[in-house]
């Protein structure tokens, strides 16, 4: 992430403290656009580098899909999920151990926990940030 983007993120959080980092830095969950004959979201192209290069050039998509387009990448500090043993986990807990990273960010990458995948909520912990 560039120093300009870091500065903008800090400024946005200072001006709008009620907003979460995910609201300022993440993909807009309600955003949709039309491509290849269907309605699409940021998730549709974040795993395909060729699509990212194409669609992140479009201003409204780049603005709505900040994480996917590499504009910003931070862990959601308030994200808590239930682990397989019933205890709670968070991004900081995942990041502390390579086995946890492999389990929650790779093997269970698409498993939804507390409304989203751990990899989506904890991109820094999961080394899942994109270049802009």
Strand order in the largest sheet: 1-2
Helix segment tally: 8
Low-pLDDT residue spans: none
Q: Radius of gyration, rounded? A: 15 Å
* Number of beta-strand segments: 6
Mean pLDDT level: 85
Largest sheet: number of strands, sense, barrel closure = 2 strands, antiparallel
Give the overall shape.
elongated
Helix-strand pattern: HHEEHHHEEHHEEH
Secondary-structure-based class equals alpha+beta
Give helix % range.
40-55%
Estimate what percentage of residues fall within beta strands: 5-15%
What separation lies between the terminal Cα atoms?
A: 7 Å
Write up what this structure looks like:
It is a single chain. The protein has 132 residues and is an alpha+beta fold. 42% of the residues lie in helices and 12% in strands. It has eight helices and six strands, in the order H-H-E-E-H-H-H-E-E-H-H-E-E-H. It has helices at residues 3-15, 21-25, 42-46, 49-55, 59-64, 91-95, 98-107, 118-121, and strands at 33-35, 38-40, 80-82, 88-90, 112-113, 116-117. The strands form three sheets. It has a two-stranded antiparallel ribbon. It has a two-stranded antiparallel ribbon with strand order 3-4. Strand 3 and strand 4 form a beta hairpin. The longest helix has 13 residues, at 3-15. The radius of gyration is 15 Å and the shape is elongated. The mean pLDDT is 85.
Features:
about 130 residues; alpha+beta; two-stranded antiparallel sheet; elongated
State the gist of this model.
With 132 residues, this protein is of the alpha+beta class. It contains 8 helices and 6 strands, in the order ααββαααββααββα. The strands form 3 sheets. A two-stranded antiparallel ribbon has the order 1-2.
């Amino acid at each position: 992430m560039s120093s300009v983007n870091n500065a903008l993120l800090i400024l946005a959080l200072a001006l709008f403290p009620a907003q979460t980092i995910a609201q300022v830095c993440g993909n807009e969950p309600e955003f949709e656009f039309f491509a290849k004959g269907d309605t699409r979201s940021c998730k549709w192209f974040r795993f395909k580098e060729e699509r990212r290069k194409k669609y992140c050039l479009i201003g409204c998509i780049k603005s709505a899909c900040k994480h996917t387009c590499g504009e910003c990448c931070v862990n959601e500090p308030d994200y808590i999920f239930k682990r397989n043993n019933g205890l709670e986990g968070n991004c900081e807990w995942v990041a502390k151990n390579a086995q946890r990273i492999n389990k929650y960010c790779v093997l269970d990458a698409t498993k939804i926990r507390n409304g989203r995948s751990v990899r989506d909520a904890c991109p820094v912990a999961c080394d899942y940030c994109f270049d802009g």
